[in-house]
């Protein structure tokens, strides 16, 4: 599979789980990329609430998390006039295709998924859904004749499985599904934990001090950046292997200001000013997002999601018709 350029006007699909707070790593690594891919492509973005259920969840948390994730996507610039934004469970075809995908991926393949191994190691109750998670993800992607799936490197294995599922399906049943060709990882910045810069910034970080939430106040952002670990040698240089903390600050400042972090390093001889500028740049990047987020009413988010689901369903229904026919499911209402 290649990472690379996007073909002319491609169908783009990606999904994000509604659990946990959106942080800087999500935003700079993935969501900003979603926003720019809206230009010149047919982008479809999905809040994958069914995926969240693979781990036991409080129903209220799922509901508010879903609305708030959609609100966040709108706040960062997903534009419902230029792309489709919807909730996975609103388009029932995801479930239907997921079942068929479970019949073309094998027990062995699913057993080899590293995300399943990690999550099941950490869980007491390992649901069948957690095991089948990648089949649902394959369905998400294949339901829209997707060409391009912008995801981080941690999803590479799932995307490869989706490709294999499509290829196997087409081999069994004839050419039916579009095999997604692209996997984009390079475009987004890789943002690391501020306290443990050898780890990716993540929702499950050990210390919240290492993770900047998109809804953190300017004061909190300043404090977290100020306390970010650096090192003792005092030199500002972009060198992620030797100087992970300092390099992470340069990456963040670079991503926030659209500048090459290596070039930025030459502007600084001390950590203090680098931290100050990084915090300032972040605050001016995030503040407008927060304002949009806070001004979006639930009803408006829900209405946008309804309209998005209608548009998504139109595509999904036609692909599902093709799929049912290929598999040999007898059509309904075909009697005289
Ligand atoms: N598994 C993805 C993640 O955790 C979320 C996801 C679900 C997804 N379905 C998708 C991503 C389809 C891309 C395409 O990040």
Number of helices, where a helix is a run of at least 4 consecutive DSSP H or I residues? 13
Query: Which strand-content bin applies to the residues?
Result: 5-15%
What ligands does this structure carry? tryptophan
Instruction: Identify the overall geometry.
Output: elongated
Considering DSSP H and I runs of 4 or more, what fraction of the residues is helical?
40-55%
Overall residue-averaged pLDDT value: 93
| H/E element sequence | EHEHHEHHHHEHEHHHHH
Distance, first to last CA: 47 Å
Please tell me about this protein's structure.
The strands form two sheets. The protein has a three-stranded parallel beta sheet. Strands 4-5 form a two-stranded parallel ribbon. It has 336 residues and is mainly alpha-helical. 52% of the residues lie in helices and 7% in strands. It is elongated and about 80 Å long. The site of tryptophan has 14 residues, from strand 1 and helix 7.
List the helices and strands and how they pair.
Elements: E1 11-16, H1 24-37, E2 42-47, H2 49-52, H3 59-76, E3 83-87, H4 93-102, H5 107-111, H6 114-122, H7 128-142, E4 148-150, H8 156-173, E5 182-184, H9 218-226, H10 244-257, H11 261-265, H12 271-295, H13 298-327
Parallel strand pairs: 1-2, 2-3, 4-5
Helix pairs in contact: 3-12, 3-13, 4-7, 4-13, 7-8, 9-12, 10-12
The chain binds tryptophan (TRP).
Tryptophan binds at residues 13-17, 48, 51, 137, 140-141, 149, 151, 155, 158.
Name some characteristics of this structure.
single chain, 336 residues, mainly alpha, two-stranded parallel sheet, elongated, binds tryptophan
């Amino acid at each position: 599979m290649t990472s690379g350029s996007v073909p002319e006007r491609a169908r783009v699909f990606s999904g994000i789980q509604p659990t946990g707070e959106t942080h800087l790593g999500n935003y700079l690594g993935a969501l900003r990329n979603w926003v720019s891919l809206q230009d010149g492509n047919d982008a479809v973005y999905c809040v994958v609430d069914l995926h969240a259920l693979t781990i036991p969840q409080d129903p209220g948390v799922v509901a508010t998390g879903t609305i708030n994730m959609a609100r966040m996507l709108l706040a960062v610039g997903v534009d419902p006039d230029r792309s489709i934004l919807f909730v996975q469970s609103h388009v029932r075809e995801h479930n239907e295709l997921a079942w068929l995908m479970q019949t073309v991926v094998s027990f062995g393949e699913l057993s080899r998924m590293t995300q399943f191994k990690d999550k099941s190691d950490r869980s007491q109750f390992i649901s069948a859904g957690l095991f089948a998670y990648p089949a649902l993800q394959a369905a998400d992607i294949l339901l829209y004749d997707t060409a391009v799936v912008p995801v981080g490197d941690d999803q590479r294995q799932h995307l490869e499985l989706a490709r294999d599922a499509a290829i196997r399906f087409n081999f069994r049943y004839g050419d039916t599904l579009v095999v997604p060709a692209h996997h984009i990882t390079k475009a987004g910045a890789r943002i690391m934990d501020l306290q443990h810069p050898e780890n990716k910034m993540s929702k499950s970080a050990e210390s919240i001090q290492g993770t900047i939430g998109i809804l953190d106040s300017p004061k909190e952002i300043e404090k977290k950046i100020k306390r970010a670990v650096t090192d003792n040698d005092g030199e500002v240089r972009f060198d992620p292997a030797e100087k992970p903390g300092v390099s992470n600050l340069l990456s963040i400042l670079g991503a926030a200001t659209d500048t090459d972090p290596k070039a930025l390093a030459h502007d600084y001889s001390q950590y203090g000013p680098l931290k100050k500028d990084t915090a300032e740049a972040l605050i001016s990047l995030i503040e407008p997002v927060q304002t949009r987020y806070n001004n979006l009413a639930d009803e408006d988010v829900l209405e946008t999601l309804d309209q998005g689901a209608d548009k998504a369903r139109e595509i999904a229904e036609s692909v599902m018709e093709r799929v049912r026919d290929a598999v040999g499911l007898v059509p309904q209402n075909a009697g005289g």
